[in-house]
Amino acid sequence: MDPLTLTGQILGFVAMALIVLSFQFKDNKKLFIIQVGSCVFFVLHFLFLGLGGDASAYSGMAQNVLGLIFRVIVLASSRYPKLKNPVTMSLIAAAMAIVAAVTYTGNIAELLPVVGNFVCLGGIWTGNANIIRITQLAGVSPCWLTYDIILFSISGILVETFNIASIVIYYIRRAVSKRRARSEAEAANEQPVAETEAGQSETAEKLPDT
Hints:
The protein is mainly alpha-helical.
């Protein structure tokens, strides 16, 4: 592995560490700030992979730059709500398409980060946590994971695998919690009936024979 590619892989691990760290914060603002920092390191990660000889990495670098800008806008929109509007979203989407065309070298794998970013843009823009998870699981992570495997971005592979596993575990835990709550509710509804039947039997036993 040449020095530039090795440097890129190391920077990728720094980006991955920041993403893992971001999940330790419950405050959305701090989470976003750390994830923005992670995006910066992923930009450098793909830049050095590209300098190391794989031109397909520049697509990932460019889309991470746009992802970084997009996250900064989302973060700023909490303070300046007017930033979050259809015009801004359309401009970001147009920028993604233009950058994709500029960085395209003929390798179809380079389109995967573009598709992933489009799906991510739509999901995050809704502000709905469930939609964000579903779009991440069904579109964003599969696109980036496939791209990372082709490019051999070790940190990228680990991050997307972690994202997919985290979301799957979340939905499994939610399903188990709902099933447990349903079982407890059914048990609570059946208990009074059982007690009533027992009470009726006891009353019948106490009635004198005529």
